[in-house]
Design a protein that fits this description.
CATH superfamily of the largest domain in chain B: Fe-S cluster assembly (FSCA)
Order of helices and strands of chain A: HHHHHHHHHH
Oligomer: heterodimer
CATH class of chain A: Mainly Alpha
Structural class of chain A: mainly alpha
Radius of gyration of chain B: 17 Å
Number of helices of chain B: 4
Shape of chain A: globular
Largest interface: A-B, 31 and 29 residues
Helix content of chain A: 55-70%
CATH superfamily of chain A: Ferritin, core subunit, four-helix bundle
Number of domains of chain A: 1
Shape of chain B: elongated
Helix content of chain B: 10-25%
Number of strands of chain B: 7
Distance between the termini of chain A: 31 Å
Order of helices and strands of chain B: HHEEHEHEEEE
CATH architecture of chain A: Up-down Bundle
Strand order of the largest sheet of chain B: 4-7-6-5
């Protein structure tokens, strides 16, 4: 492969979008109110669309003729590179919104930096996706504030979600040794910059939401290396069912 | 003889499958028509990454041109990224007549962080409307309601 570092990087981006998009899609028909049911599936659709562009590009870099479908449906669990945060089960609405918020606050500054990528295709995908991501972050920020600074119960649920999900946040900023060359050549930004911006957004929204970051900062990692939680296998069983049962089927 | 003009006029009849009053040119999705290597190359750009209507649009373009005996190819480009600024004047008018409020000039500010964008009701033109949800019946629309005539309506949300 000509550029394995870039392939791995794009695969991580694509898998993050794909797995979170699949999770959000599980809310279809189950949202707490109709408007939120539609909002979550709209966001899911954007993420799946972004995953298509990213995985198509990953397939192109790999050079073995794989398109987004081949990469989305025909890999084994340990070949997915998404962060553990994104495969965590939906839980209640507060948990889903918190997971989405922590991710959106990461994706927006990342896409803003990738706009300046020396790689034209990454820059194009970032340009397209950033506009959508801004709407997502606004939506989830508002919900975190409403829930956190809402009723006693909504506050408690949002705080429980934050306590539970915080341990998966550091992994978003994972960098490999091969990323160093991508950073040096201006293809991707350093995660230090992204983390600084992420922290700023997260801290200001959580403060307004009267939510407190858990004092225990034990962090999980593994997804970026293909070592996943038990939840991913069940998610993939759903996601891949049709292609596994009826190989090469088309709609 | 087939010219770029004739192709453009035929494509004027190809519409957004979800907003059938808008042609692809009105919507700003049609980005180019070129004759390259003995075939016509039609360039389109998606409104939203996951818009499921893109595939239908591509098929409809090929079908329409086939009706006129023209072999063509459709390519999808992401950059420059689509913006609601590309919606034509006639497109904005057609949207309103169809009952969908056309995009305002500004990206919607949120209710919690700033004053929301004022979107006039497409039915009674009242400025007293409220956003029900930022996410509506399709990726490109938000859901609003008029406080004067009570009509619920779609707003083609601003994307920049």
């Amino acid at each position: 492969m000509k550029n394995e570092a870039l392939y791995n990087y794009v695969l991580r981006l694509g898998d993050d979008s794909l797995i979170l998009g699949q999770r959000l899609g599980e809310w279809c028909g189950h949202g707490p109110i109709l408007e939120e049911d539609i909002a979550m599936t709209n966001i899911s659709l954007d993420l799946i669309g972004q995953a298509m562009s990213l995985l198509d590009y990953a397939g192109e870099l790999e050079g073995q003729g794989k398109d987004h479908d081949a990469l989305a449906f025909l890999r084994f669990e340990n070949e997915y590179r998404n962060a553990l945060l994104l495969e965590q089960p939906n839980g209640d609405f507060a948990n889903t919104m918190m997971r989405q918020f922590l991710f959106d606050a990461f994706r927006k500054p990342l896409y803003e930096k990738l706009l300046e990528s020396t790689d034209k295709q990454i820059a194009a995908i970032a340009e397209k996706s950033l506009k959508e991501t801004k709407y997502h972050l606004k939506h989830t920020s508002e919900w975190i504030i409403r829930l956190g600074d809402g009723t006693e119960e909504s506050h408690q649920r949002a705080q429980t979600a934050l306590d539970h999900l915080w341990r998966y946040t550091n992994e978003l900023f994972f960098e490999t040794t091969e990323d160093v060359s991508l950073i040096a050549s201006g293809v991707v930004p350093s995660m230090n910059d992204i983390k600084a911006q992420w922290s700023k957004t997260v801290l200001s929204v959580l403060e307004e939401a009267t939510l407190v970051i858990p004092s225990n900062n034990w962090q999980f990692e593994g997804g970026r290396r293909g070592v996943h939680s038990e939840h991913l296998g069940f998610l993939l069983a759903d996601l891949q069912y049709m292609q596994r049962a009826y190989p090469n089927m088309k709609w | 003889m087939v010219t770029k003009e004739s192709i453009l006029s035929w494509l004027e009849e190809v519409c957004d499958p979800e907003i059938p009053v808008l042609s692809l040119a009105d919507l700003g999705v049609l980005r180019g028509v070129e004759y390259l290597n003995n075939e016509w190359l039609i360039t389109i750009t998606p409104t939203y990454s996951g818009c499921p209507a893109m595939k239908t649009m591509e098929d409809d373009i090929l079908l329409k041109l086939k009706d006129h005996g023209v072999q063509a190819k459709v390519q999808l480009v992401l950059s420059p990224a689509w913006t609601t600024d590309w919606l034509s004047e006639s497109g904005r008018k057609k949207l309103k007549e169809f009952g969908i409020a056309p995009p305002e000039a500004e990206v919607d500010k949120s209710v919690l962080f700033a004053a929301p964008t004022v979107v006039p009701c497409p039915r009674c033109n009242s400025l007293e409307t409220k956003m029900v949800s930022q996410f509506g019946s399709t990726a490109c629309k938000a859901h609003y309601q008029c406080l004067i005539c009570s009509e619920p309506f779609d707003y083609f949300k601003c994307l920049k």
